[in-house]
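Q: What structure does this chain adopt?
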Amino acid sequence: MENSMSTQIEEIYVKDVMMNCDSFPVVNDRELLRETIIEMCNYGLGIACIVNEKKQLKGVFTDGDIRRLILKVQKPIAALFVDDVKDYCTKIYSSITPDTSLKSAILLMEKLNIWDLPVVDNENNLKGLLHLHPALKKLLGI
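A:
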């Protein structure tokens, strides 16, 4: 039974459970930090994917980035709000492709201690986002 379940898990891919780009915050790299945070609040996720005009992923901005920013940058929050998000986003990030196995993706998420992974194609075009909750629901069959 366990071997059968393991085989089933190996046959599930990120593309089977990833969120489409209209289901999470995707902002242009020239978007204001304030607007990016508003988008994150609108979607109820702790991440925004930052893209250029060609929809290529350039970085991610997370709740953790907000905390680090407040502690590191010594300027009023109101002044930070009018800066471009690209000035503060994480430019070195992990991502996966739609054809990555869900098992591999979840193991990577565990290793990195993260809840979300951007999904990109071979040209780094943003295709979706893998969020841990839908992945677990798929694995649990709920």
